[in-house]
Design goal:
With 277 residues, this protein is an alpha/beta fold. The chain contains 10 helices and 14 strands. It has helices spanning 2-11, 48-60, 74-79, 94-97, 139-151, 164-172, 185-193, 204-211, 244-259, 262-271; strands at residues 24-29, 32-33, 37-39, 45-46, 63-68, 85-86, 101-102, 111-116, 131-133, 156-160, 178-182, 199-203, 219-227, 238-239. The strands form 3 sheets. A 6-stranded mixed β-sheet has the order 9-13-8-12-10-11, with helices on both faces. Strand 2 and strand 3 form a beta hairpin. Helix 2 runs antiparallel to helix 10 (262-271). The longest helix has 16 residues, at 244-259. It is globular, with a radius of gyration of 20 Å. The N and C termini lie far apart (45 Å).
Length: 277
């Protein structure tokens, strides 16, 4: 019997992290994306997803083992077995689905451009459009995108690399603007303040988090809020394709936390509004 189990394990036909025997779940996160997930001054992880993950683990009866990982390598490290799931503000996109499975979405936020308040790009009103869903963009929304491209012509747009924001900037802006890539949001925030960026494209929540600091109080949003298309279908947990037991376990608890309002309360605490799905 023992030999038979070893054979199954070697073939990948059973997992060490099944629902019945798992005592801990290793969760990969960036730790540099406030207020989603961040390392505070004491070196402790905090943020909406940290609260979310800890509550999910408590409901599953397992311990959370958080592992921080630079964003650029966060999916490769999952595939190499460094952790069991990514909880890191990761948008569910078709491109990423080629490599990993996603849980159902648990939170969602839009993306916006933002710049310094004294910039000519600040507070741009684009064709009266305040929201653009790239999944069903009509003529008015596409015209707004065209106006943005024209407004940013020759400007330097800064985004975090390997993100949905970088995908949008590369697809729509790289022909007429300079697109600069950064490893973390802190890096591009500092370059905006220093005048090395004309504008940043990021999710709304992380931008607001920075704007509420003394350093970021000089920044303002510009143009509409974007969703859909390159930004995918909300934020979910990424799991190796073979780990269907872990996927089922997380989907069950995500549904419970959505239904009883727990995720909504967590997002209100960290974002000031309900961003649950």
């Amino acid at each position: 019997m023992k030999k038979f189990l070893l054979i199954l394990l070697s073939l990948g036909l059973i997992s060490l992290a099944t629902i019945s025997n798992a005592k801990s779940i290793r969760i990969g996160t960036e730790g540099a994306y406030p207020p989603w997930n961040n390392l505070n001054s004491a070196g402790e992880l905090e943020g909406a997803e940290i609260d979310f993950g800890n509550e999910a683990c408590a409901r599953m009866g397992v311990d959370c083992e958080w592992v921080t990982q630079d964003w650029d390598g966060i999916i490769p490290a999952l595939l190499q077995g460094k952790y069991d799931i990514i909880i890191a503000g990761m948008s569910i996109t078709e491109e990423r689905k080629q490599k990993v499975n996603f849980t159902t979405g648990y939170m969602n936020d839009g993306a916006r451009f933002w710049t310094l308040k004294d910039s000519a790009l600040a507070d741009m009103a684009i064709a009266g459009v305040t929201k653009v869903n790239m999944n069903n963009a009509g003529g008015k929304e596409l015209a707004a995108v065209g106006q943005l491209i024209a407004a940013f012509e020759g400007k330097t747009i800064c985004v975090q690399s390997s993100t949905t924001h970088a995908n949008f900037a590369s697809q729509y802006l790289s022909g007429s603007s300079v697109v600069k890539l950064y490893q973390t949001v802190d890096d591009h925030n500092l370059d905006l303040i220093a005048g090395r960026c004309d504008a940043i494209l990021s999710d709304v929540a992380s931008a607001i988090d920075f704007m509420e600091t003394d350093q970021g109080s000089v920044a303002a949003f510009s143009g509409p809020t974007f969703s859909g298309g390159p930004w995918g279908d909300g934020v979910g947990g990424a799991i190796r394709k073979e780990d269907t037991d872990i996927l089922d376990m997380w989907n069950k608890v995500i549904a419970e936390m959505a239904a009883d309002g727990t995720t909504a309360e967590i997002t209100k605490k960290w974002f000031g509004r309900d961003m649950s799905m």
